[in-house]
Amino acid sequence: MTAPDEPLETVTLELDDPRPDEVLVRLAATGICASDAHTHSGRIPSPSPCVLGHEGAGVVERAGANVTHVGVGDHVALSWMPSCGVCRHCVSGRPVLCTAAAPALLAGTLLDGTVRLHRDGRPVSHYSFLSTFATHTVVPAASAIRIGREVPLAVASLVGCGILTGYGAVVNKARVIPGSSVLIFGAGGVGLSAVMAARVSGAGQILVVDPVASKLEEAKIFGATDGLVPSEHLVERIRDLSGGGVDYAIDAAGGEGILGQAFAATIPGGTIVCVGMPDVHARPSLPGPELVRDEKIVTGSLYGSSRPSLDIPSILRQYAAGVLPLDRMITQAYDLDRIDHAFADMHAGLLKRGVVVFDEALAGFATPPVTLAA
Known about the structure:
This protein is an alpha/beta fold. The protein folds into two domains: 14-146 and 325-363, Quinone Oxidoreductase, Chain A, domain 1 (Alpha-Beta Complex), CATH 3.90.180; 166-302, NAD(P)-binding Rossmann-like Domain (Rossmann fold, 3-Layer(aba) Sandwich). 30% of the residues lie in helices and 22% in strands. It contains twelve helices and 16 strands. The chain has helices at 34-41, 88-91, 101-107, 153-174, 189-200, 213-222, 234-242, 258-264, 288-293, 308-320, 339-347, 360-363; strands at 14-15, 22-32, 56-63, 75-78, 117-119, 122-124, 136-140, 144-146, 181-185, 205-209, 226-228, 246-251, 266-274, 297-300, 330-334, 353-357. It is globular. It holds the Pfam family ADH_zinc_N. The chain crosses the membrane at residues 151-170, 176-198. Belongs to the zinc-containing alcohol dehydrogenase family.
């Protein structure tokens, strides 16, 4: 990406060798996420020129001198939030809030404040430490999570962001219990991941709200019990279906007004987890007296409130065991030179998840010659 809203260019860049605490990965596949599109449009500010992409999986080609947890030939899924292991958040078990990683993430560098990418000798920024819209990448060692070779790397790539975000919001943050009722706003990749997590958590009722009726039918395949299109009487309908309100509400969309609906549709003592990123100027409000009297919990969840080095392998083991149908998330695979078509299909609402495939054998998915938009 040379600049926001400018056409993406497929070019050859220089990639430096990994430093002692870094890993060089040959990518097999990378997911297409809405955050990439929002950055390309300028909605999410990020330094440019840069290489986009933050959902990736591949094979380690070189490991820095200090790296011991992965080696050459290992299959890895990439986490866009590495952690230092020593700051107050890391030591308390909340590595996605790492205070060392956040400044470098926003600056478009690796953890030491420098870049490994160059074009004609000039620096090119990283994106979310990973820059996976490329055949190779150098990443912080903590971003490379070793996984089993039985997992197709196209599936593994998606777990590094969208799937972990939705799954973790349900399992790690809401901590849904068996027999409970769960309301999920949004049936995209994150929302469907939340549906799967609610199902394996034993939820007795899983309601999904989305304006696209076909997505609601898709959500039922993943475990939803009820699908609802937004309407003037949405909250009343949810209360009727759930016997007075749901136990948990997950906002996987971040749209205007959703938090208020989620709060109103949740029973006293219930939990509302905000996952979808709202507009930077959004200032939602809640009824103060009810916030006190009803003891509802309203909280956010970044990256599934996860511990990626533990949660990513756990999710993929559940996939390998047939518990989580993650491969159903992939609607379409693309070659790198057709990435603009992937963005167009995503904007048109045609994808649960799209992937760019670099190595079909490792990725486990072929790249058809046409895209859905065509």
